[in-house]
């Protein structure tokens, strides 16, 4: 762009000399420049650049900036507090969506949330994270796919409190053959790396959980025999060890495929046992057959045959 002569002496310009560049490189340069100008200077800056660089006149710009009205401060906390109230009070749970949205507006000092529609709008990831923490704190499994709006979150809370959804208690963990059931979800048992495990969906990805590790975590939480699971230790439900926790309970023909352990490298083998010296290897050679009787001196050995 042309600068004022008062700022730049005659014959001096800050614009790069593009004459020596191939046309393809010059077009790339114009695209980069126009991208920055469109972002910071808008259409007026784009027109000025194209007037100064006719070669860029044919370039087209499509800009769709994202403009939104941010939620008031404390919005995620307010929704999480609302859900916590649903678990703590049946009266709060039976409240209508309109009443809860009205209370939400009052708490946040706004009137922007429509009482008739707000609880039908999708929830953001950050809000879902806060609500999921409330469900977990109340021992209830949280299904993000089924709880995409506040209205659906309320229905999930109602179902959990009415006993329609299994809560995350030790009684909800059981094992039948090659299947482990946690709450209402069933997980096939796999054998991986010498350990029995199940796969659990975490943030859209399936993650292996070793059964012995699961048993240890539940035990550390204090759920032992006689403390939440009468006459049935948690370890006997999940599996006593990774090696034999399910070895005797998987029906014939349904045993998961066993993966071969990784081969040891020569370096690993060398660390397991120090190499033998030459004398040690000689001593370990099998002993030869005993020699026959000694041949008297001066006698032909062939005569003994």
UniProtKB/TrEMBL annotation:
Residues 1-20, 234-305 are annotated as: Disordered. Residues 256-266 have a biased composition (Basic and acidic residues). It comes from the Bacteria. This is Uncharacterized protein. It comes from Qipengyuania qiaonensis.
